[in-house]
Amino acid sequence: MDSVKYIIPIVAIVFGTAMPIILAALVLWYQLRKTARVHELALRLAEKGHPVPPELFAGTHTKQSDLRRGLVLIGLGIGLSICLAQFEAPWSIGLIPLFMGIGYLLVWKLETGKAGN
């Protein structure tokens, strides 16, 4: 009966550590399966002599704007700094996402200016 009280923390630690790894493996497995199905379909189309549409390989994932990322990180940095200051914790930790957001805004501005030329 004494060993049962040690099993629960060990199981909790193992599952707590393994869960992110399992989730990442499932996401990667799903993406691999999806890519394999697309390639299999393209191969079947090519074998039958049909043209393979380029939209088949076009990713549905759209890149998010650096402006959006910058504004979100700036808001997160300011909010985190205010929250940590209220709890008398080191509020300067909030400066990390704040300056990352400023960096994204600079990249967005430079890329927008480059596209206008």
Gap between N and C termini = 75 Å
Low-confidence stretches: none
Strands, total number: 0
Query: Fraction of residues in helices?
Result: over 70%
Largest sheet, in brief, is:
none
Number of helices: 3
* Beta-strand residue percentage: under 5%
Radius of gyration: 24 Å
**Multimeric status of the protein:** single chain
**What is the 3D shape?**
flat
Report the order of strands and helices. HHH
Structural class: mainly alpha
Instruction: Count structural domains.
Output: 2
- The average pLDDT is 89
Secondary structure topology:
Blueprint: H1 4-47, H2 66-86, H3 95-115
Helix pairs in contact: 2-3
Short overview:
It contains three helices and no strands. With 117 residues, the chain is mainly α.
Q: How would you describe this protein?
A:
It is a single chain. With 117 residues, the chain is an all-alpha fold. The protein is built from 3 helices and no strands. The chain has helices spanning 4-47, 66-86, 95-115. Helix 2 (66-86) runs antiparallel to helix 3 (95-115). It is flat and about 70 Å long. It starts with a helix and ends with a helix.
Name some characteristics of this structure.
2 domains, 117 residues, mainly alpha, 74% helix, 3 helices
